[in-house]
């Protein structure tokens, strides 16, 4: 279908790449660029492909063109590329493309300040009210959750024939960061909590920015939320503390000790399952007997997502011998969990632990017959990493990796590499 569109466009004098960009056909754009298409191709009106991608609000296509050599300085008949497109559209992912160093050099501070004010207006007014004001339509916009980039999601909101995304809080935070404006902790937290889902871009942008400050005042503000009655505020505090330690690449790692102290005590008292999951994930980033003991207390929790976090947390034990006796016992239990996502996480933890305990290998072999293909694939991977012959027939029954699934390629490829080593011996 994509090729037909491209051919049709070319018949009217339009480069196939332009037709693919306008259609937002990522696969076709990639193939055409691989085949040598000019990333700076223009449409019949002289609009460059990169600007066209921004105009069609496709962050993925715009970044793809940029990565393949498109010159963001090339202008079309409309003049310079407007940052306003990304801000009004409400997509942090599209904004990030336009704020890359090779693009933003053309932006003045006054323009960035204007865009900060525009994002602030959207955020303060609210998407629903702003859409009603702009379209003159009444009622409540229709909301659809969409993935904005690899990690974060936003809502697409439609009313009166106009659709925008509600990522303006994240856009505001990123513009302030670029401008050197230090928003208070409470302000950034409120922006995050205005959205109920922690996967929303507003959560990620606020939490990451605060974690990167790495100063005592920010740490204390986040740690103090542990005692807050609102579980969502506790969750935000735990998230900031976890990221503060996780992103600390210094040799001193000054937040490792305080983080372990906070999360060890927190895990013992937290009642909310969402917060407890975050705390256990954080503990998994602190290898050591204290963290392991705190995690193991929740391996049999009534909630599957907490058991998942316990299985994830035990993945820190990857140095031979990979697992202590209590951890091995808990993983044997989690490998037989009734919930597929828990079994899969435990299976991956055991696989990457490379523990050669026969009991663990036997359970992995049993999981080759699991009803969930994802678990079967990881079980093959785990057996291959400990040189267990049973990975070979397991991989053979599964067949080739599913197209476009790099994880399956990695996991099943481990069995083929093991077989090659075995036959070479």
Automatic annotation (TrEMBL):
Protein's UniProt name: HEAT repeat domain-containing protein
Annotated keywords: ANK repeat
Top-level taxonomic group: Bacteria
Pfam families to which the protein is assigned, alphabetical: Ank_2, HEAT_2
Keyword Manganese appears in the UniProt entry: no
Residue ranges of the TM segments: none
Species for this entry: Streptomyces albidocamelliae
Each ANK repeat, start to end: 12-44
Matches recorded under InterPro entries: Ankyrin_rpt, Ankyrin_rpt-contain_sf, ARM-like, ARM-type_fold
Record's keyword annotation contains Nucleotide-binding: no
